[in-house]
Sequence to fold (243 residues):
Amino acid sequence: MTTRTQPLSAAPWLTGMREAIPLLGGYIPVAISFGLIAIQAGFTAWEATLISVLVYAGASQFLFIGMAAAGAPLWLVVAMTLLINARHLVYAPNLAPWLTASRHWPWLMHGLTDQVFALAHSRLPQLPEHQRLGWYTGAALLAWASWIAGTLLGAVAGDWLMSQWPLLGEVMPFALPALFLVLVMPRFTSRRWALALCLTIVTAMICTLAGFTNLGIPLAALCGALCFYLVKFDSRQAGGSHE
Fold:
């Protein structure tokens, strides 16, 4: 199935920034939490901000400061960080078909996060080839800048924010899951995607209720991916399509 492209009327980088604005609703609260937790773990505000500049991987950053504060050896911290980010091995082949020839793409992949991937995966196929680089640049840079700014804000004024608005501390943990939910909801219009997503959700819930929290995420992702590709295979065998 081919996707019809539609040229952008505005500058691609500006459109990318505008379309990435909804991501900030999940990025900034979580980044504030990271900045605050980093300060509590003994890092300085500039060290916390530098981590967000160079590492820029939410879950890995929280793991990094936790293990570093606990005195874990550096090799183990690096190994665990790479393990968490191994999901990019799945992102790359899914995004590669929509990338145009440019020497800038390898550098821009530093800005590839879960949310940016989800947005780019659905948006890039809709754009003409000459506008994809600009669109991705705008979207990725805005998301990265918001994460850095949120980290600095949390590191410098996190305690003050929590004291002024105690409810903020209760709401922030739900910001990122809510953002993921918004990103995957459009996929439920496809029966194939809906089946894979429902299986993923149910598997994760069962693992969590059974006490296997750490196992839940990779196992649920594996079950969802297998379901997605098996349904595709069965549909081809039957000579039909359930996209």
